[in-house]
Amino acid sequence: MTERNTEEIMDERYYAQEIFDLVRKTPDKKKLATALSYYHDNDIASALSYLTPKERKHLYDSIGIEATSRVFAYLDEDVDKYFAELEADQAADIIEEMDADDAVDILEGLNDRKAKEIIGLMEPEAKEDIDLINSYADNQFGSLMTTNFIAVKTGLSIKETMSSLVEQAKENDNIGTIYLINDNDTLHGAIDLRDLLTSKNEEELEETVITSYPYVYADQIISKESLDELIDYDEDSIPVLSEKTNEVLGVITAQDLAEYTFEDMDEQPEEPEVVVPEKENKTGGLLLLCGTVLLIAAAIAGHTVVSDNVSRETAFIVLLVAGTVFSVVGLYYFYAKKKNE
Q1: Residue 284 contacts by C-beta under 8 Å, 6 or more apart in sequence?
Q2: Was domain 6-135 assigned CATH 3.30.565.10?
Q3: What is the helix (H) or strand (E) element at residue 127, kind and residue range?
Q4: CA-CA-CA-CA torsion for 85, 135, 146, 122, nearest 10 degrees?
Q5: Residue 249 in contact with residue 240, Cβ under 8 Å?
Q6: What fold does the segment set 150-266 form as a domain?
Q7: Overall pTM surpassing 0.90 (yes/no)
Q8: What is the pLDDT of residues 265-314, one digit of tens each?
């Protein structure tokens, strides 16, 4: 895709235009970073295509690696082009900051050589998460999961649970639902963050734990029925367990479920075309044939009509009318077929 010029900008709620102007008119990186902090990452991602490579570099350098990774997570197109403008180590740093599922999506949008180069520069822990998701086929729940979730050992005090939450929140921001795990990392249950914050003691907190929380296995095949069931739970995330050890490997967010459902709907086959039965074709042909024969007969009768021969004159009129009716009805059948096609 070629760079879009200034005149093309302006439909995306004007935010893209504002971001475009800020980047071009704000050479000071700190001031630009402050100004852009008031915009959503998705709007910044939408503005990238309006900027030149030099302007995009100025934007990345201003907001930093972490913010740039959030912006790149919203990219739908031109991923390969944007990463080609980055140094390999900078690209690796950006990928490392992403949620593993977003990183997988981005890497799939790059050419193989660039993707391998970036993965080779990444930290082992980040590569492990990406390899884990890539180990599952596209039709398995493991391919939809992210490792961005909070898991706390069961049996801790409220203070210890809060301390663990705060520490993990530095890296993971899906904190609405907190998963409780046993010593062997299997799922014990889940609690809502609000319940944790409002519980007065451990006994009261324990009463809010849902030990029958829904889950899926990573190797489980995705089906319409299983998706509908998960959506019906209306939870912000669903844990994904190892098929061998029952260990919590990751979670599927409500957003991921919605995106997959919409993609699946887009891939549904179109409704089959209505085909007019062959019987209608034959009927139309027979009627036209009959009409033609009657009209020919009417022509012959009319040619031999004598002025005082009432019988022949009547026959001419009857044949003419009948031939016309049969022909019109026959044509109707063919017209109806053509319209349905």
Answers
A1: 330, 331, 332, 333, 334, 337
A2: no
A3: helix 124-134
A4: -40
A5: yes
A6: CBS-domain (3.10.580)
A7: no
A8: 555 445 444 444 444 455 656 665 665 666 666 566 655 544 445 555 66
